[in-house]
From TrEMBL:
Keywords: Cell membrane, Membrane, Transmembrane, Transmembrane helix. PANTHER family: ABC TRANSPORTER ATP-BINDING PROTEIN (PTHR30482:SF17), HIGH-AFFINITY BRANCHED-CHAIN AMINO ACID TRANSPORT SYSTEM PERMEASE (PTHR30482). GO terms for molecular function: branched-chain amino acid transmembrane transporter activity. The chain crosses the membrane at residues 20-40, 52-71, 77-95, 102-121, 127-152, 173-194, 220-241, 261-285, 297-320. It is a multi-pass membrane protein. It is found in: Cell membrane. Pfam families: BPD_transp_2. InterPro entries: ABC_transp_permease, LivM-like. GO terms for cellular component: plasma membrane. This is Branched-chain amino acid ABC transporter permease.
Length: 330
């Protein structure tokens, strides 16, 4: 038990410091984007940057259970939808404050994750993947049936959210830096979780659930807790996306979107937290750049992903490790 729950600080500190260092570099680069956009007089960079930050939150949240718990959820985009529709539904009742909308999204996400996770976690492997996909599609079709909020056509928002009574999000730059602040705060939270006793037990369950159960831990409870936390964090990304697009639709929670989140995690580096942030940036930027070249950009993107997996199985993180820029996985 001691090798999992009380690992020497000296063996864990480099990995923790490596994650923080890599993320700090990414956050600095993100912070410089708006000034660069202003200098180039091209606000589009801020818009795509906000999308990147939102998806970075979702990918990082998925990595929390995929990378550290080997739980491949193919319905994780449902929580994006809960966040987006929390903005739409609450604003229709006059609740426009983002703080309240995030809290509402997290409550709904926690309840959904608690119920579906309690069922899904009783399965393993491909069965877990398929049952999370099924629950995600159930949520998808539920929101399609909500005709009051546009159904399949979606629902336009009349205005962006407020923050404690201020209109800071009405500016694209304000929304961008709010998204960046949320990403940084949630990264620190995830990093703290992974480095805690809870995180060490959770990772130990990934390595050998039978052994962890034999020494007195309940794999189910730890996995379910992590599943709920991951869903709640993902819902924050949905709140940001709704404000960025000023539009919500069931497309936010389709299984294709869940697949894209998994691609972002794999592209950046599974089990690294900072890697999926870079993976989200790489995936969305490649989509934009390749889309300019050809309408068949998914073919080129797929080829790039295959080459990345073949030559750097640990994604972007693996490339950085090769040149000594990033630390290895714990």
């Amino acid at each position: 038990m001691s090798d999992v729950t009380t690992a020497p600080t000296a063996t864990r500190a480099p990995a923790l410091a490596g994650r923080v260092k890599a993320a700090a570099l990414l956050f600095v680069l993100f912070a410089l984007l708006p000034p660069l956009a202003s200098a180039l007089n091209d606000p589009f960079y801020v818009l795509i940057g906000t999308r990147i930050l939102a998806y970075a939150i979702a990918a990082m949240a998925l990595d929390l259970i995929l990378g550290y718990g080997a739980l491949v959820s193919f319905g994780h985009a449902a929580y994006l939808g809960f966040g987006a529709y929390a903005v739409a539904i609450l604003s229709s009742y006059g609740i426009n404050d983002m703080v309240l909308q995030i809290l509402g999204a997290m409550v709904v996400s926690a309840l959904f994750a608690l119920v579906t996770g309690a069922i899904s976690l009783r399965t393993r492997g491909v069965y877990f993947i398929m049952i999370t996909l099924a629950f995600g599609q159930m949520a998808f079709f539920f929101f399609i049936s909500l005709s009051a909020y546009g159904g399949d056509d979606g629902y336009s928002l009349s205005q962006k959210s407020t923050v404690l009574g201020t209109d800071i999000l009405h500016s694209d730059y304000g929304l961008y830096y709010m998204a960046l602040g949320l990403l940084a705060a949630l990264f620190l939270l995830c990093n703290r979780i992974v480095g805690s006793r809870f995180g060490r037990v959770f990772t130990g369950i990934r390595e050998n659930a039978t052994r962890m159960e034999a020494v007195g831990y309940s794999p189910f409870r730890y996995q379910l807790t992590a599943f709920v936390i991951s869903g709640c964090i993902t819902s924050v990304a949905g709140v940001i996306l709704a404000n960025q697009a000023q539009f919500v639709s069931p497309a936010f929670m389709s299984w294709h979107r869940s697949g894209e989140l998994i691609v972002m995690v794999v592209l950046g580096g599974v089990g690294t937290l900072a890697g999926p942030i870079a993976g989200a940036a790489a995936a969305l930027l490649l989509e934009e750049w390749l889309g300019v070249l050809t309408e068949h950009w998914p073919l080129l993107f797929g080829l790039f992903l295959v080459l990345m997996v073949l030559f750097s199985p640990r994604g972007i993180t693996g490339v950085l490790e090769k040149y000594g820029i990033a630390r290895g996985k714990e």
